[in-house]
Amino acid sequence: MGVVFESVLLGVVVLLAGTLPRNLLFFANLQFQPSVPWAAPLIALYLWLFWRYLRGAGPPPTTAATRRERLRANSIPAKMWLRSLVAGGLGIVALVLGLRVINRLIVLPHQQVPDLVGVTPTTMATLLAVAAPVAGVVEEAAFRGYMQGPIEKRHGLAIAILVTGTMFAVAHLDFTLILWPYYVAVAAIYGIVTHLTNSILPAIVLHTAGNLYSNFTLWLTGRAEWQTSGGPSDLIWTTGLDAHFWIATIAFVVTVATTVCAYAWLANCRAQQSPVDGSA
């Protein structure tokens, strides 16, 4: 359990170091001159410096190699890039479809849009656009890099995904127990891609794209992505098995099957050629 405890602790430190400055700058921007997205360039600069440090830049030089190794930001061949993005992208689609089906079976928590009085659309769009890559870089470095890597080597991929998924859930302040399987599923989507490529880089791209979609969906519609299907939102125990539910269920099953094939396609690519180690 020492490896698990150390990896979780270091992952949490990376997570806090990457997200707290962003959150403080976001809060300050929304409180002071919210009509201008002045925090965006400062956040981008901090993210660049943060990434460079995790890649081994900065003091102390004695930890540079360890930081690079734990980050796991290895270069991978173009073929593996394509297959990892296809597999992970299908996984995200399957997850959203699955949430829409589950939302008709049980009541899932509703996400609320914060009070944005005085905040211009330009400021909000800019901050949301900046937030997505920050989450992608910081959370993948923390969970799939510093946390998953050592646990995976010592206890296997399944345990690593369960631990990172649970910590990913705890890290979200709106977490409720009913959403724990959702966060574990997210950890599986990104974690298996990272395992098969030996790199967090594809997961960063997937995570950033997923956050862009969820952030703007919530802002523009006021509802979470699983609550914007355009069909009925009442439970099927009240409405009965309507066409929208069957369409969503069939789409979910087909997408899951396609996702499994895509991950097998990626695993076959790994078997044919090893990822290229080093920085990208």
Characterization of this structure:
The radius of gyration is 20 Å and the shape is globular. Mean pLDDT is 89; it is low at 275-280. By secondary structure, it is an all-alpha fold. It is built from 10 helices and no strands. It has helices at residues 2-31, 39-54, 64-71, 78-102, 121-155, 157-171, 180-197, 201-221, 236-239, 243-272. Helix content is 72%, strand content 0%. Helix 1 (2-31) runs antiparallel to helix 2 and helix 2 runs parallel beside helix 5. It has one domain (2-272).
Task: Give structural attributes.
280 residues; mainly alpha; 10 helices; 72% helix; globular; disordered C terminus
SSE diagram, text form:
Layout lengths: L1 H30 L7 H16 L9 H8 L6 H25 L18 H35 L1 H15 L8 H18 L3 H21 L14 H4 L3 H30 L8
Helix pairs in contact: 1-2, 1-5, 2-5, 4-7, 4-8, 4-10, 5-6, 5-7, 5-8, 6-7, 7-8, 7-10
Quick rundown:
By secondary structure, the chain is an all-alpha fold.
Number of strands: 0
Number of domains: 1
Structural class: mainly alpha
Distance between the termini: 32 Å
Helix coverage percent: over 70%
Question: SSE string, helix = H, strand = E?
Answer: HHHHHHHHHH
Rg, rounded, reads: 20 Å
Q: Which percent band covers the strand fraction?
A: under 5%
- Outline type: globular
Q: Unreliable stretches, pLDDT < 50, 5 or more residues? A: 275-280
Oligomer: single chain
The biggest beta sheet reads: none
Mean pLDDT: 89
**DSSP helical segment count:** 10
